[in-house]
Amino acid sequence: RKEVEQDPGPFNVPEGATVAFNCTYSNSASQSFFWYRQDCRKEPKLLMSVYSSGNEDGRFTAQLNRASQYISLLIRDSKLSDSATYLCVVGDNTDKLIFGTGTRLQVFP
Amino acid sequence: DGGITQSPKYLFRKEGQNVTLSCEQNLNHDAMYWYRQDPGQGLRLIYYSQIVNDFQKGDIAEGYSVSREKKESFPLTVTSAQKNPTAFYLCASSLLSRTDTQYFGPGTRLTVL
Question: Quick one: closest CA in A to B47, which residue?
Fold first, then answer.
């Protein structure tokens, strides 16, 4: 089983749609969780950290479910500019960040 | 204007040559990292450094070397011993520990001819 698993997609959604991605992790002792966004041929950029109580930043909502060992990212009112690959990143208890392979989102007009 | 810079953006290398990729940060971060990204794979850690004059091997260190003589700089040398060096190389930094938020430079795309 991979340490961090994501559905590669692509998720093709129309503008204005709501889309959700899940990411599962294998190490139950993982301590920190992030979502990064990566545009084609560019560097990853931090989208948001994920906190135990869940957190929201505008149209983006992140949730953590420790019991089932997954994190989720919800994007409401999708924009064309949201088209990118979304990387799930998990910090384990050995002080290491594990990167998922990413979920590709394509928003169409 | 704080950030991480990498140079060059594109690099072409002949087989058997060593090349050095530059990474500089002015964020006053203690920790710096080198990753490589290949199509369809997650980022893989090559080397990291949590303090000046100290660095540790990551998961795929073979064929690479680094130095950390200054807090701001963490150059990566891709040696001729690296069997499949064509990849996208990303440098990152974080404030203190490896599980702190990491911020990435724009990357160097290395192609071996």
Answer: A96
